[in-house]
Each structure stands twice: as structure tokens, then as C-alpha cells.
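pasting input
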Amino acid sequence: MGKKSLLYSLLIIPVLLVSACQQEEAAEEGKTDGNEQEDALTLDVLHSFTGEQPQAPVIEPAFETFDEEHSDINLQIETAGGNDIEQVLRTQVSADDAPDVFTHWGMRRSESYFQNGDIPDISELIESDSELEGMFREGSYTPVTYQGGVFGLPILSYSYHFIVNTEMFEEYEVSVPTNYDELKEAVTTFQENGVIPFAANNHSARYMLLNLFSQHKTQEEMIEHATGEEPFGDALYTAAERVQELAELGAFPDGYMSMESAQAVQLLNAGQSPMYYQMDWTLGHLDENQMEKLDIIPFPLASDGLPQTTISGNGQFIYMSNEAYEDPDKREAAWELMKKIASPEIGRQIIEEASVLDLSNSEVEFDESNVNPILVEAFEDQQSAENIVPSYDEELFASEVENEYWPLVDSLLLGDITPQEFVDEMNNIIQEYPNVQFDE
Amino acid sequence: MVQQNRWTLSLFAIPTLLFYLYFFISPLTNTLFDSFVEWDGISDKVFIFLNNYMEILQDPVFYSALLNSFYWVALVITVQIPIGFFLAYFLYQKVKGFRILRTVYFIPVVTSSVAIALIFSFIYDPIFGLLNNTLNIIGLGHLTTDWLANPVTAVTAVALPFVWNFIGLMMIILYSGLQTVPDELIEAGEMDGVNARQKIVHIILPSIKPVLTICLVLGVTYAFKQFDYVLLLTNGGPVHLTEVSGSYMYNQGFSENNYGYGNAIAITMMVIVVGLAFIINKVLKED
């Protein structure tokens, strides 16, 4: 027993000594780091680009690189993936502990922060910074413009694209649709052949409705409807009627109401559906082996003579908190960080490395040979559009309208309400919650 | 001396009492207070007294969610507890390998609801799902449907993972109850010539009535609290078809930032659950 104890002691003592020495070294290093960090200004950052988010491989390292490059600034980064950020931010703001810099959506989900002064008007910073002149495409600030002020910098755009599998169209001898009648014909033929016409979920269907409607409208006219200046009328009625007709014809797969966007794309990848209409971030999920068969074409026209319309705008922004803005040192550091994340360089990386078509930045230049070919097609589709309009639910509707609008479109698609009831209900909702962002 | 001891004992109870007040009573009071306000989580709270409750009374979605919650409760009573009981009774017979079986039956209880929801979403998928594919293979293709969107099947399809999840819990509670049934009582019954059904109905079930009461109260409470399966499988859709009161409360509070209304739903649910628990206790006690 005595020998055993001696043996254990001989083994344990050196281990303890080594680990103690290592801890002492670590403590010394910590002291040095601590001294450096003591002088550094700390910025609390909250962003949503983590985990499975397609932009995460670019944006997460961008924050880290900024932190490494600025010894005078120490970033305390917190992440909340996707929609989770909404609750995390709301909790922090209501606890008077808002992050100094954070990413979030535009007006539709940030309106109350603008109203309460939690996010400051940064118009002066934008105007006084020559680097930002012409950096963003026209209309980029619209979702963060609120009653005369500008509250954030755009970091990510969105756009919707119509993709067809040309091989399947040839196989079933269907012509690629250019107008609604041809689209209806294609849906019917595919249905009769046991093919699910659209790889779609209810979001896709909602955006088809919006595209069919907005072909009749300019951006200004769409704003007039959102602010309640002009009630919705025939254009929305016809669009609602048509999208309901498509649903009745079986254009969408079973379960499309509860399907995730990434799930819907699998139908296109599996060659089970020849048509697809979705947001650009899903393009990165397309199967590379299918690329040769896929073409991006303009969404079919509601009737001949209407302009080729693309739904596109800015969806994500970077903000600083009011507390950071009030502190001159923090304001300067936060502004530098915001500009870095909104810069053309990050825009280029998002396109080339994350395969997401970010067009918020007009100065961004990307190498087409480094890019997923479907993104190049999406880019060309965007450039050739005669009418570019923003999404109602991404940009123009007040947040209360969004909560009602989505289930209302679902009811329309399920046939629970008629197109006329849909239009009437939309007018009632807008009357109750008009967009007030353009009020001075 | 006795008086002094009481004071000392009370003094020792203070930390626990404070802990309970801070972590249990204070959030409840907060919820009650917030149910009387209009609040989006950021702006100032506006006291609107009973307006949220008046709105609940006129809200058709709340009624439909409440009805779905009651349907879940019905599934607890008719499916979850009976299956839990029969599994417990099966184990009580000390069949070979009952210890392993007990663990196996209990596994769903300790499995994350996210994992369970994921499994069921694979089963229900209308195109690639196991259920529809199996039906097609065995020649019952006409029965295939979109399980989570079809108005006939959706509510049941969302409730099934919850029912399955907690069968093991009911089993373990009832199993512990079965251990307390005196052997003499069963032996006496057997000597009187009772058959298996009579033994269960007239001897075992009356003997484990207090445990059955616990199962019922727990089942009802869990059914009303549930929102994760709804959120993960359908998010209450399509058009609130699968909404239960728990998911509606969550969506009002956390998705639509309507915290006052969400809190009012929480208080309403609490009153309903306490009422149900009271009725269950009363009925089973009177029996």
C-alpha cells in the first residue's frame, strides 16, 4: 500500500508542477493581453449571420478580421442565427442593454426602434462621409428611411428569380411560358403528366401574386397603396384571382403551405419540378449537376405589353445603437465597423464565396469566373428588368400588416376567401396600419 | 423555548422563501400586470386594463387554438395515459427483460423535442415522407395526403409527436403506482376468480387512483403548455389550422411583439388549467 502511494505521488507531483507552471505562464500572458485590452474600446456586436445562414462564411470572419486589425477596438460578438436575432435584440433593448452595433431588417421589423430613438438617425454621418457617396444603388436607403431620417447602412439585397428546367419543358413538349396564359397551359400539361409544376412553398406563391400585381405598378404607385393613399383595386384582384387559379390547378406541391424554402428547392434539384420562383439566397442550394438544364428567365407577364418586372430591394442593414451614437469614441468605432461590413469588398465576397447575389452595393465588382453560373444569370436577369419594385412584406408594409398579410394570402391560396374578399381585407388592414415612414 | 425554535426555523426558511418569491411569484405577478397593458417590448407600457381580455373573448383564432388544445387533452386521456398504463402493467408482470424495456419505453421522454419533430417531419413529408411512401407501396396510395396541411389530419398529425413523447413518462409514473398495490389484494381477487379485465378495472385502477390523478393533471398541463411541436412542424399554419393556445401565446408575444396580449392569453390558459386540475381532483376524489 505504502509503495503504491509513493508511486502515485511520484506520478502526480510532476503533473501538478507542469500544469502549475503552465497556468503561471498563461496568467502572465493574460496580464499582457489585459493591459492591451484595457486601453481598447469595447464594442458589443450582435449579428444573425451564423450557423447555416448562407452569408455566414463571409460575414462572421469579416467581424473577426476587423477585430484583429484594430488593436484599439475590442469586439464582443454575440450571434443569433436567422430570425432569432429579432427576439434577442428586443430583449436587450428593452433591458436597456442594446448592442452597440447590430444587423437587422429594415423598416418592417425596425420601425419601433426608429420611433423610440433606440436607433439614431445617421443622416449626418452618411452625408459627411465621402467614402459612401454613390456606394449604394438607388433606393437602397428606402427601408431605413423613416420620417425624414436615415437609420442604417444596407448590407444585403434580395431579389426573386424565375427558374425553368429546359430539359423537362422539352421532354413534355411544353413551351417556356412568357405570359400568364402560357404559364397556365404549362401547369396543366405538367399536372396531367404527373409532374409537380412548381417547386414552391407558400412564400413562392405569395411572391408570384406580388409579381403579377406589381407588373401594373411603379415603385411610387406601390408606396401609395402601402400608405393608404390609394386603395388596392383591379390589379390586385386580377393577381389574386390568377394565383388562386394556379393553386386550384395544382401548380404547387402537396404540403407547400408548411414547406421550408430550402425544402422546396429539392424538388427542382431532384428533377421533379420544372419551375421555381424564389429568393436569390436559395440559388446557392441548387444542385450543380442540374445547372446546365436550368435557365433564369423573366417571370411570365400578366398580359402582353406589361414591363418585365423583378422584385428586388434591400433586406438587411447594419445599425448602431443610440448609446453608441451618443459616445463620440464609440460612434467613430461603430461607424468604421458598419462601413467595413457594408463595403464593396464584403459584397464581392458574398457573391463569390457565399453564392448569394448581393446587389446592395453599386460599386461591387465580382469575377464571373469565380461565381456560380446561375448567379451570373440572376444578375443579368436583374439588369435586364424594365421594372424593379420592392417587396411589400420586406420593405413597404408596416410590421402589423405583415402579420395579417401572410395568413391572408394563405387563405386565398387555400380557397377560403375569394379574390374580392382578399382585396377588401387588404384595404381594411392598410387603413388600420398604414405605412407612415414617408411622413415628414 | 418552543417559540424561540419557531423563530429559528422561520429564519432558516427565509432564503427558500425569497428564492420562491423571486423566481416563481414575481414572474407570475409580472405576467398578470403585463396582461393589462399594451406593450411591444420596446415602447412604454400603456395600461389598458381589461382590453386584452375583451379582445381574447372576440378572437376567433384563440377559440380555434383553445379547441385544438382541448383536442390534445382528449388525446392525452384516450391515448397517452391508456398506452402508458398498459406498458406499465406489462412491465409490472415482470416479463423477461423488463428492465431494458423500461429504459427503451422511457427514451422518447429524454429525447429533444426538436429531434422528435424532425423525425416526424420526415415521416409526414407529402412527397418524400415515409408514411405516404409506405401507403403507396402497400397499395393504399389513395390514402396519401399532406398530413400537416389537410384539415382532417393536421391537428392529429401535430399532436402525435407530443403524445408519443410523453407516453414513457406516464408509464413510469403509473409503474411506480402499480408497485404500491398490495399483493394480498390481487391474490384475494384471484382466489375469488376475477379475470384479467376485472382485475384491472376493479382492483388495480381503483388502487392507483391518486397516481392516475397525477397523470391526468400532468397530461392536461403539458397539453396546454405545448408549443414546440406546433412551432417546429407547422408554426400554427396553414392559416392557424394547427394553432394551440401555447403556440398562439408564443406567436403573439414573440413573433408579433404583442406582449400584453400574449400575457393575457397566458393568464387565461393558467385559469383554465387550474380549473381543469381542480375538476379532475374533485371528480376523482368523489369517486
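fyi DSSP finds 13 helices and two strands in chain B.
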